């Protein structure tokens, strides 16, 4: 099932293609949010500039094909990520961070920002940040596969995870194909970052997410002109979620409390979300809550 994404402004200078959540499919495993940005020419501008903002109940997973991003957060992290490296930020009960293109920065920016919903037994834990300078890679003919999260083809990512997950980048040379082993208990999603690929007869191009249900033990991916893809997978996440702004919770009351705590944190030093130091700008204010109660949805988007 091909699901078209839509464009969303991110900060002042960046527009992203949002591929998850969508109305017919809100999650793939515990993956609950996927933004694809670029490739953008940032040679004449500041590039990505996302001021300090909060998160609860999730992990952010940052993956670049081109460019650099400087990450700062309220646990004291200061880390530049480059292509082939991985940043994973675990919000737990609460964290805040900023993302920006460093000065100077490469002329092109291109990558993915993904969220993973934390299960109930992990979402109240302490905040942490992990940077992985190298990731496991295997080649198969004209395919190069990087195991970003989880395990694939006998290779294990070092990335911290709290539920059964897979994240892998697949780069195909023109005319190449690869057969990937899958876990039949997982559901999967594939996005194209560049180029077109044939997956089970579907022509996957940038701007859409291809959803694949459970029950598959392998998958053949082909590309006539070459492509860069990202494969998501995981066991279905059966905990209902309330997702609003940058928060992932379970009830309206949790979200309202997180919003109030952020408004206090951005005006005061410390608090639940801490302080991001060194960013040249003010923290983002939280939007107003909707006038109706926020309701939990399951992974299909059904209101509960």
Automatic annotation (TrEMBL):
The keyword Iron applies. GO terms for molecular function: metal ion binding. Binds 1 Fe cation per subunit. Fe cation binds at residues 53, 55, 97, 99. Residues 17-116 form the Pirin N-terminal domain. Its cofactor is Fe cation. It comes from the Bacteria. Gene3D superfamilies: Jelly Rolls. Residues 169-266 form the Pirin C-terminal domain. Keywords: Iron, Metal-binding. Belongs to the pirin family. This is Pirin domain protein. It comes from Virgisporangium ochraceum.
């Amino acid at each position: 099932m091909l699901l078209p994404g839509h464009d969303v402004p991110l900060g002042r200078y960046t527009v992203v293609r949002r591929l998850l959540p969508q109305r017919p499919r809100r999650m793939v495993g515990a993956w609950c949010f996927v933004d694809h940005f670029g490739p953008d020419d940032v040679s004449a501008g500041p590039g990505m500039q996302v001021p300090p903002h909060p998160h609860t109940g999730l992990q952010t997973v940052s993956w670049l094909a081109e460019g650099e991003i400087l990450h700062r957060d309220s646990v004291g992290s200061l880390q530049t990520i480059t292509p082939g490296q991985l940043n994973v930020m675990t919000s737990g009960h609460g964290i805040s961070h900023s993302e920006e293109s460093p000065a100077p920065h490469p002329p092109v920016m291109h990558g993915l920002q993904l969220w993973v919903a934390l299960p109930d037994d992990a979402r109240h834990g302490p905040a942490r940040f992990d940077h992985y300078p190298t990731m496991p890679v295997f080649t198969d003919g004209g395919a190069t596969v990087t195991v970003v999260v989880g395990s694939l083809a006998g290779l294990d990512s070092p990335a911290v995870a709290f539920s059964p997950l897979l994240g892998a980048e697949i780069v195909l040379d023109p005319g190449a194909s690869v057969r990937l082993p899958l876990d039949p208990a997982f559901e999967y999603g594939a996005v194209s970052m560049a180029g077109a690929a044939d997956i089970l007869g579907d022509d996957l191009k940038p701007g859409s997410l291809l959803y694949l249900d459970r029950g598959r033990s392998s998958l053949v991916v082909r590309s006539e002109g070459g492509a860069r893809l990202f494969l998501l997978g995981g066991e279905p996440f059966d905990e209902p979620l309330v997702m609003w702004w940058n928060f992932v919770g379970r009830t309206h009351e949790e979200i309202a409390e997180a919003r109030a705590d952020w408004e206090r944190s951005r005006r005061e030093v410390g608090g639940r979300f801490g302080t991001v130091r060194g960013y040249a700008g003010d923290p983002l204010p939280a939007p107003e809550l909707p006038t109706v109660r926020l309701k939990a949805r399951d992974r299909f988007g059904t209101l509960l």
